[in-house]
Amino acid sequence: MTRIILAICVVTSIFLSIACVQKGGDGNTAGVSSDTIKVGVYGDLTGQTASFGQSTKNGIQLAVDEINAAGGINGKKIELIVEDDQGQPQQATTVVQKLINQNKVHALLGEVASTNSLAAAPVAQSARIPMITPSSTNPKVTEVGDYISRVCFIDPFQGATMAKFAATTLKAKTAAILGDVNSDYSKGLTQYFEQEFTKNGGTIVTKEAYTQTDPDFKGQLTKIRNLNPDVIYIPGYYSQVGIIARQARELGMNMPLLGGDGWDSPEIWKLGGEALKNSYISNHYSADNPAPEIQNFVKAYQAKFNTVPDSLAALAYDAAKVLADAIKRAGGAEDSAKLKDAINATKNFAGVTGTITLDASRNAVKPAVVLELSPAQSKFTFKETIYPEGMSAPTASPTVADSNANAATNANTMSNANAANGANTNANANSAANSAAANNTNK
Q: H helices within 229-291, ranges in order?
């Protein structure tokens, strides 16, 4: 009997050891060897920011279809395994655990919302499974560990970009901020907008708060109206912003509304309508860019999904292509440590959202575009490009490597706000179009 029990213990120990290796183990084996490269995709497909998740899934799918049609990577096709986290941090943790432990994925792509990425990233880091977030901009996301990277710029630069635009192009002297108190994304943008705006001589007259479940914002807006700021900065997501814009205009508040990439969704036109006139956002690319590579992407996306790709789709497409490039350079996806190192070594990758180079913190250093909302056409119209320090406007015709450039760009060079103290150096050349924007005229 003792021998039987001992034998059972030995067999159990062996199985447990194998299971540990298959979950990621010491980082040397990302998953079970197979004929496909398994990539986990997680995001909000049914929650309040479902438009983000759907665009991200579509962008990744388009990239993977192209890669597989071209023969895959080293003879292996990419297999996508998609999970819906419903926009909830706890669910993000749960689905990533499933993707790693049950599906044995070699890598992860996701999320959009920084709060959800922050919930899932420790799981990926602990399991030593590389994770690339296409569009989570909060600096804390990649601080989780060296298996976590991103292909988008981060909030210090994005927040400073809109503060610079408000002060320089719109000539704003005062601003109010209305942000989501429970969102890491919103809190980060609030911090860096305020920091840059006040550094440029502006005054923040008030900071009001809301949550994603709030049905009404007129209390906060009435407080802001009484202070009559030149602009209102709303660093939130489209599902609340559209309603906020409507209620602000109903209260007679006609000043410019400013935001970030969280506004970028086709749903915002349904929610905000004509109230979105005289509004501007920072974003990652412009679908109007004439660069052939960008227009090829736009046409391919439209053909497949029957809609113009937003920045979330473009970033997701780039994230999948960056991952594929890293897998090829790593010689495969089985060794998760090698794959992680290959991702982190990404330099000068030509994406549709710009040239992607990951810095020492695994953040992408790249320009931002400012877009004006044109509700009559349900589109975001290019206004200008703002570059990080050390990066200037291209002198030649726009290419994929400079996808945020435009022939009409009035280049603003901003110090790299990826640093903790935000942006410092500015060089501006404003055209008549930007002067018109300063007078609050709209196309």
A: 238-250, 267-272
170 Cβ contact list (under 8 Å, min separation 6): 230, 231, 256, 280, 437, 438, 440
Condensed to tens digits (0 to 9), the pLDDT of residues 132-182 reads: 999 999 999 999 999 999 999 999 999 999 999 999 999 999 999 999 999
276 with 314, same domain? no
Instruction: Based on the fold, state whether residues 240 and 380 are members of the same structural domain.
Output: yes
Residues 135 and 223 in one domain: no
Residue 264 sits in the same domain as residue 409: yes
Confirm if 422 and 192 have CB atoms less than 8 A apart. Answer: yes
The DSSP bridge pattern shows strands 426-427 and 257-259 to be: unpaired
Average pLDDT over residues 266-273: 96
pTM for this entry: 0.79
Residue 20's alpha-carbon distances to 28, 103, 250, in angstroms, are 11, 14, 58
Does residue 127 or residue 442 have the better pLDDT? 127
Domain stops at, among 301, 332, 356? 356
Domain enclosing residue 132, as ranges = 29-153+291-356
Residue 165: inside a domain, yes or no?
yes
**pLDDT tens digits for 343-398?**
999 999 999 999 999 999 999 999 999 999 999 999 999 999 998 877 776 654 44
- The Cα-based distances of 425 to 98, 155, 158, 191, 199 in angstroms read 46, 17, 15, 19, 11
Q: Per DSSP, which regions of 321-367 are E strands? A: 349-351, 354-356
In terms of Cα–Cα distance, which of 114, 59, 128, 112 is closest to 321?
A: 59
Question: Are residues 95 and 168 both part of a single domain?
Answer: no
CA–CA gap between residue 284 and residue 264 (Å, rounded): 10
Contact 167, 194 (CB under 8 A): no
CA distances 331 to 151, 232, 341, Å, are 21, 50, 12
Residue for token digits 């924007």?
437
C-alpha of 168 from chain center: 25
Say if 17 falls within a structural domain. no
Strand partners, 204: 175
Q: How far is the C-alpha of 186 from the C-alpha of 183, rounded, in Å?
A: 5
